[in-house]
Design brief:
By secondary structure, the protein is an all-beta fold. It is built from three helices and 39 strands. Helix content is 3%, strand content 56%. The longest helix is centred in the N-terminal third of the chain and has 11 residues.
């Protein structure tokens, strides 16, 4: 079947035609397109039924010295089209076309380009077959148009969008995947019988030889920014430059001098009383462009390069963040080896000397296996600490249905009076039983002195775990049925610390039904067989946990023209979270394709919520917590976006009882003085963006934040005013980033 698809597809792709630059306007009327034969050999891949699509899709492709061009004709009546606009890289709710290109055809990395009906765009990168990250942005061009029976997309991908291996004899073999999402049916069609959530994704791309026009390039982005801090009555200004140089198609050097890494995107409000760190994703351009080679991840949320560490709060002093002198990245592809270097240097101030970060990476991918090495080093002179991490990652495909992936890691920390090293390793065995049935087994071990967090991210070390998952899907092809797919999931997990103390032993069962109107309902129940919490007391006695459960219900409404929503509910009985429930509602109203209002709320109610105080002392609280967000987004035209975001988080905690954790893990009544508390945080951001060119923008941003904490329990509705009035931030920012 796959061979037939490839033969049909190869017959229509004519990449080697020499043409003049095509005007990318979403209207397929350039004379160059008239000579290109189109393909319509698409199949349904979500749900994975491989059935004939309801709508016909035609694709035309050609290339010249300017890049690769795609013209996609999507047959679909106007009444069934969804063309709502969203900001770049935001979740798309419209119909869209997706193109994924593996320029080296080696399944190491593939670049994703998505354009939605209405003009929204998104890009990202795939690695390790199907690991997708939004944290990549490239310079490319796309436009759409529509009529009563079709919508059209026209896409131009320049040759310098990504590094790629040198081609042989002016020919390049690439892997490619083209898909189409039909929003009102919640279905995906593709030109190859594969999908991103399958064990083999990149390896099952269609292949084709094309004429190669890749060459050297130089891109320079200058920036200037001014910021007024209205809380401290201070004014800041800065200028800098980002340079991206490709001396040849297989090498790229990126340099950022005096970078301004101030955020124009705000993080979500979070209140965290747990002993583990909250993860925030990266959104600074220099650290998202051409970063995929260094993005090495593992189980238990491990990331060996977490660039949010760079420019974070200094090791000493009261500064919120550190300024950077500069950063550099170099990547190269030689034969079947990808390698690169990455470094960044913080600027010092009166108190802090600034940290230094270094990363080296090499990766090779053969037909059946891949092997990679990563080295990171961080120098932290303010606390006389340096940290080095060595990692070896590997994968081996026994067949098209059975794959082993794993990693061996060592960390070494040098301190003035204490050096220590430790190791971590994990492996995962994935088995695709058939088209819609898959299972996996995973083992992980993280030593109690394994410390990757000087540059990486790991919620906790001192951990040994095993898990098994089994997922079965039943796509319904009967046209008379209103059901699109039925899915069942089973998970088992057991975790211990390295001393053998059981932390978690749980079974998860999930049942999901999806309908053809794009609505779905999921029921998930988790049975926890008890164990110990060895982190709650921050290194003191471990708390014994009784058996508990969590019941989750999630419903997505049908994809309507003007209103989309989903609701979610949790009911839980767990040792630290207590007995309670959590309710979430999220709705989006579209005034038109370009204007939308988004409202979301999370309400949590629980008793016996345990919060650590000091040593072995914990307190049980009755908790009420509310998080509300309002987002207004306007894509005024192809160049202008206006967004308004407001969040309010309020919590009141009323004391129930104080406890002390004993040596055997039980709770003993404590006579320690305890008290109620309340908190209220607010965050507002108003942002205007004008696009001068792809990745060249003018930003006007106003942001304001408030935070208040009280040593008593106030009602939630009385907490908004103090959380708004107690300003902790009030800034106005103007930033220009422009490609010369």
């Amino acid at each position: 079947m796959k061979l037939i698809y490839k033969i049909i597809l190869f017959s229509w792709i004519i990449f080697s035609i020499q043409v003049k630059a095509i005007i990318v306007d979403g209207i397929i009327n350039d004379k160059e397109w008239q000579h290109i034969k189109s393909s319509n050999t698409f199949t349904t891949v979500s749900p994975f039924s491989l059935s004939t699509p309801e709508y016909k899709t035609e694709v035309k492709v050609l290339s010249n010295a300017n890049g690769i061009y795609f013209a996609i004709i999507n047959h679909q009546p106007k009444s069934a089209q969804r063309s709502k606009r969203t900001a770049r890289d935001a979740h798309m709710v419209a119909d869209y076309n997706n193109i994924v290109l593996d320029f080296d055809n080696n399944s190491i990395s593939a670049y994703s380009f998505t354009v939605a009906n209405g003009g929204s765009i998104e890009d990202g990168i795939y690695r390790n077959e199907n690991d997708y990250s939004y944290e990549w942005n490239g310079v490319w061009y796309a436009q759409t148009s529509s009529d009563d029976e079709h919508w059209y997309s026209e896409i131009h991908i320049p040759w310098d969008v990504a590094p790629m291996a040198l081609a042989d004899n002016d020919k390049r073999e690439i892997g490619f995947f083209i898909s189409r999402r039909v929003a009102h049916l919640s279905k995906t069609y593709a030109n190859a019988p594969t999908q991103y959530n399958r064990q083999r994704f990149m390896s099952d791309f269609n292949k084709v030889n094309i004429s190669d026009f890749s060459t050297s390039s130089l891109q320079m982005f200058g920036y200037a920014s001014v910021r007024e801090d209205r809380v401290n009555d201070e004014f800041f200004s800065d200028v800098g430059v980002d340079i991206f140089w490709k001396p040849s198609s297989n090498k790229q050097l990126s340099i950022s001098l005096n970078p301004d890494f101030g955020h124009v995107e705000s993080d979500q409000l979070v209140v965290n009383f747990s002993p583990t760190e909250t993860f925030f994703s990266e959104n600074r351009p220099f650290f998202t462009e051409n970063q995929g080679l260094f993005d090495v991840r593992g189980t238990e949320s491990l990331r060996l390069v977490h660039t949010r560490r760079i420019g974070a709060k200094p090791d000493i002093g009261d500064s919120v963040g550190a300024d950077l002198l500069g950063a550099m990245k170099f990547t190269s592809v030689v034969n079947e080896i990808n390698y690169g270097l990455f470094s960044a240097f913080e600027d010092g101030d009166k108190l802090s000397k600034g940290r230094k970060f270094y990363v080296g990476r090499a990766l090779t991918k053969q037909e059946k296996y891949s092997l990679g090495y990563l080295l990171t080093r961080v120098d932290r002179p303010d606390i006389d600490r340096s940290a080095t991490v060595n990692s070896l990652d590997y994968s081996y495909s026994f067949s098209n249905h059975l794959k082993l992936t794993g990693q061996l890691v060592q960390s070494h920390v040098h301190l003035t009076e204490n050096n220590h090293s430790d190791t971590a390793n994990w492996l995962e065995l994935e088995h695709q039983l058939d088209d819609n049935w898959a299972q996996s087994f995973q083992f992980s071990y993280y030593g109690d002195e394994f410390e990757p967090n000087d540059l990486g991210y790991l919620p906790r070390n001192d951990l040994s775990s095993i898990s098994y998952t089994n997922s079965w899907k039943n796509p319904i092809v009967d046209k008379a049925s209103s059901v699109k797919e039925h899915r069942l999931d089973f998970e088992f997990e057991r975790k211990e610390n390295t001393s053998g103390l059981k932390l978690v032993e749980s079974i998860v069962l999930a049942d999901t039904w999806s309908w053809k109107d794009a609505s779905s309902i999921m029921t998930r129940i988790t049975f926890d067989n008890g164990g110990y919490d060895d982190l709650l007391s921050r290194g003191n006695n471990s708390l014994e946990k009784n058996s508990g459960f969590k019941l989750e219900l999630l419903y997505y409404g049908a994809n309507k023209e003007t209103f989309n929503y989903h609701v979610q509910a949790y009911l839980y009985n767990q040792a630290v979270s207590g007995n309670g429930y959590k309710i979430h509602g999220h709705g989006t109203y579209f005034y038109s394709d370009n204007y939308s209002l988004d409202l979301a709320t999370w309400y949590t109610r629980s008793d016996e919520w345990l919060v650590w105080q000091q040593d072995n002392d914990v307190t049980s609280y009755s908790r009420h917590q509310l998080l509300t967000s309002i987002n207004f987004n306007a894509t005024i035209d192809d160049k202008q976006e206006l967004s308004f975001k407001f969040e309010w988080l309020a919590l009141n905690a009323k004391t129930q009882k104080g406890y002390r954790i004993t040596m055997d893990g039980s709770l003993l009544d404590s006579q320690n003085k305890i008290q109620d508390f309340s908190l209220s945080d607010t965050a507002l951001q108003l942002r205007y963006r004008y696009e001068l060119a792809p990745l060249s923008n003018i930003y006007l941003v106003y942001s304001r934040g408030g935070s208040a904490f009280f040593e008593d329990s106030d009602s939630l509705n009385s907490l908004f005013q103090p959380g708004w009035n107690e300003k902790v931030g009030d800034n106005f920012l103007v930033k220009i980033r422009y490609q010369f």
